[in-house]
Design goal:
The protein is an all-alpha fold. The protein has nine helices and no strands. The chain is globular and about 60 Å long.
Amino acid sequence: MANHGPVNSSKNLAVPLLAGYMLNWGLHGALSVQYYDYYITYPEDRFFTKCIVHGIYLLETAQSTLTTYDAFKTFGSGDLSTLSNLALSGLTGAVFGSLIACIGQLYYAYRISVFSKSKIIPCCTILISFLQLAAGIMTGVLVTKEKDVSNLSRVTYYSATAWTGFSAICDILIAASMTYYLMKQETGFNATRRLIRRIVRLTIETGIITATMAILTLLLITIWKTQIYFMAVAGTIPKWYSNTLLVLLNSRARIKENDCMHEVVWARRTLTSEIGGESGKEIRMMEFRVQEGAGSGGSQC
């Protein structure tokens, strides 16, 4: 593999670090919006789910705070020699990334066990998730001990490859399993089939996002072994997992609202054809109840 430039080049160091910091802040802003949306829409959600959401947001806030401290320490002094000091990058990237990914993957494993009524796939998911967690913590420890980028690729190559590789495998397994078991849910109701299709599509989309970020980090580590280009993505991995999980949870109200509005349209057409279009008042009252129910969390139609 050819050397793609000196590792101590200020440009090669500054660009991936700054890109990672900016992406991290932007994704934390998106996560805050998702968190507020969840807090307003699901005040009576299950205690277990609320603990996961609040815990993840607290972890992400801590990660963003440490990342901001790292950014000011690296770029605030104006001294280019500080670019080679990785400071807290091992903690904010690999450790937080693998920990938050593990929390999300364990939640998905629980959901798979509910759908499948089986322990094989959930246990495999849990095992792979713990493997990526262990590899991520090892990567973070090695980065923290090394401090300098000159030997970073040499000391973290195998652990970082295992971390991102296991993470991508786990995400793909989750997306494939949830898609398979959801599609097996046979039902004679059109509304339920539409709901399942939307959940399947959203599950695939969110799984692809997290798996892509892990694979992209793996490719950057493998192709540019003497550079830290992977830092632009690795530091944002926790945010991708948190955002996709919150998007999936918040989508429940939107999916339910769409199904309810579809039923209103069907009812309008049916009643209009049956009683000559004199049911406008009743249908408008029904629409009001649907919108009111969707606004309170989509728990009723």
